[in-house]
Amino acid sequence: MLIWRNWFLIQIRAFCGVNALIFFFYAVKYLTVADAIVIDASSPIFVYVMASFLLDEKCGVLPVFTTIMAFIGVALITRPPLLTSEAEFDFDNLIGVSLAFSCMLCITFTIITLKFLENIFHGIVKLVFGLWGTIQCLIVSRLCGTLSVPSGWSDVWKILATAVLFYLGQAFITLALKYEDAGPVGLFRSTEVIFCFVWQFLFLGVVPDIYSCVGAFLVLLGVVLTILRKWINTLPSDNEFRNKCSFFLL
């Protein structure tokens, strides 16, 4: 029974992980890369909240507060007519936010599922993820009539560069977690939002507006507070820093 349960969870992890990538890929067609990354980066907040329901982990005042902050930040990125003085929502922007939010939810369920699979060899989880992604993308692209060979070497190099950079990113995070606690690593990883805004301006010439900046600030602040709380909670009860920052554990 346990074997079938784990097999089912591995399939759920693969399904959510693959669809998170697909949702993000299409989200950047409607949003700027920075806006999509901001929504995607809010996943640690929702993981904390979902863990309290699915894993019976303690949820305090701060996680609820950071969740509200994240929702407000995402709402600002949608640029509601109430703030922009427009007659109605920008439909393309709303589609992009919905796709990015779906990506974030898939990432949240992926992380929760991995918690149940912590005793399973990581190679099996990755293998199923790769197989599921290959099969699903082939079927979907075939049904949509978009399955084709890259038109030139430029597209091939871009695809290969994306794969290599993604692999290196995962490898560096894995190595970082071997030599440092998850808290500091998570804090440094959250700075990807800042780098995305900077690189988007330098390489794409996209200047963020006030809604993107304020929304990103609220989401990033919520993520930092959530990661800090989780890290402080792992410190020994007699730790001096934990005692000074006990308000984070409320």
UniProtKB/TrEMBL annotation:
The keyword Methyltransferase does not apply. It is a multi-pass membrane protein. It is found in: Membrane. It holds the Pfam family EamA. It comes from the Eukaryota. Its main location: membrane. The chain crosses the membrane at residues 6-26, 33-55, 61-82, 94-114, 120-144, 156-177, 197-228. Residues 7-78, 95-227 form the EamA domain. Keywords: Membrane, Transmembrane, Transmembrane helix. GO terms for cellular component: membrane. InterPro entries: EamA_dom, EmrE-like. This is Solute carrier family 35 member G1. The lineage of its organism: Eukaryota, Metazoa, Ecdysozoa, Arthropoda, Hexapoda.
